[in-house]
Amino acid sequence: MRLNVNPTRMELTRLKKRLKVAVRGHKLLKDKQDELMKKFIELIKKNDELRKSVEGELTESLKNFMMAKAVMSTESLEEAIIMPTEKISLNVSKKNVMSVNVPVMEFVREAKEGASIYPYGFAATTGELDSAIKKLYDIMPHLLELAEVEKSCQLMADEIEKTRRRVNALEYVMIPQLQETIKYITMKLDENERGTLTRLMKVKTMIQK
């Protein structure tokens, strides 16, 4: 389907410029799409590895908690962990990856100097609870990294879809329309030139007679 324009030389020149820009834009977007896909696949692999690792560590920590719960009373367990020894906050910033603002997350730990990660004395608790607390403490940075990577994957996927739509719009709609319209105007101008040439030849013949 061609554009509805007047078949003039000025319009032809304008459309040729638009086509040149559209073709260049299509190439740039296609390159961006390919690079985004490459980064996305890398993130997906990293996400899969992190998830398996984190799930495994969480399972081990949960097992230790269940063992501690089996030995200790619910009241004793709750009393042991009710008062944490440190305060944790979260800093979230952004970094630009292929025009996508992906999150960068970081824990900020606030604790007294030399404070233990265990918020209880060891007399009334079990070794399983110690192991569960230690595993959870160690896993938190990995859990945060997993959240960061998963959000990055989501944002990257959204950007890939937007870029894909733009690439398709240029490749299957705008560029073919411009090419067809340029072809149509060129044919019309050629017809007009042939018509003008034919009239000039007739006038010349009449003058010669």
Automatic annotation (TrEMBL):
GO terms for biological process: proton motive force-driven plasma membrane ATP synthesis. Keywords: ATP synthesis, Hydrogen ion transport, Ion transport, Transport. GO terms for molecular function: ATP binding; proton-transporting ATP synthase activity, rotational mechanism; proton-transporting ATPase activity, rotational mechanism. Belongs to the V-ATPase D subunit family. HAMAP family: ATP_synth_D_arch (MF_00271). Produces ATP from ADP in the presence of a proton gradient across the membrane. NCBIfam families: PRK00373.1-2, V_ATPase_subD. This is V-type ATP synthase subunit D.
